[in-house]
Amino acid sequence: MRLGVISDTHGLLRPQVFDLFREVDHILHGGDVGKWEVMIELQAIAPVIAVYGNVDPPEIRSRLPQVATAELDGFEVVVTHGDQFGHPTPEKLHAAFPRAEIIVYGHTHQPLLELVDKTVTVMNPGGAGRPRFDLKPSVGIMELEPGIPPRARLVPL
């Protein structure tokens, strides 16, 4: 199974995302969607598991949870924006979601891909919307196959 991982779109879905996510089976959005139109466009590509972020308007917050969980290809997945942890780190997230095997988050706009305790993959795809904090926009691609650790990469936009 191939996952497209995105966060912090802030209402902007770049054209490159459509090419990069063309063959994904699911999309995980780590919050700060910005506009519901972004969700509609992503849902046209593949099923979306998404959460709201700290700057999402009430329209988004009323439609999305703060934390989403799912089982994908046998992996326990958690998606959260992470702002509820102040400055989220892989250690804080793993402590908060000890059963998760994959944790996707956003908020910091800093791309991160880290293995925690040999079994948990934590990914922040970076901010996919307008550049903030002098960071270049990016997304992630993750490959799942039962019985082996997830393979993932960060992709600059």
Characterize the structure shown:
With 157 residues, the protein is α/β, with parallel strands linked by helices. It has one domain (2-156): Metallo-dependent phosphatases (Purple Acid Phosphatase, chain A, domain 2, 4-Layer Sandwich), CATH 3.60.21. Helices cover 16% and strands 34% of the residues. The chain is built from four helices and ten strands; from the N terminus they run βαβαβαββαβββββ. The strands form two sheets. A five-stranded mixed β-sheet has the order 3-2-1-9-10, covered by helices on one side. A five-stranded mixed β-sheet has the order 4-5-6-8-7, with helices on one face. Strand 4 (67-72) and strand 5 (75-80) form a beta hairpin. The radius of gyration is 14 Å and the shape is globular. The mean pLDDT is 95.
Please describe the topology of this protein:
Elements: E1 2-6, H1 15-20, E2 26-29, H2 36-43, E3 48-50, H3 58-61, E4 67-72, E5 75-80, H4 90-96, E6 102-104, E7 112-116, E8 120-124, E9 138-145, E10 148-156
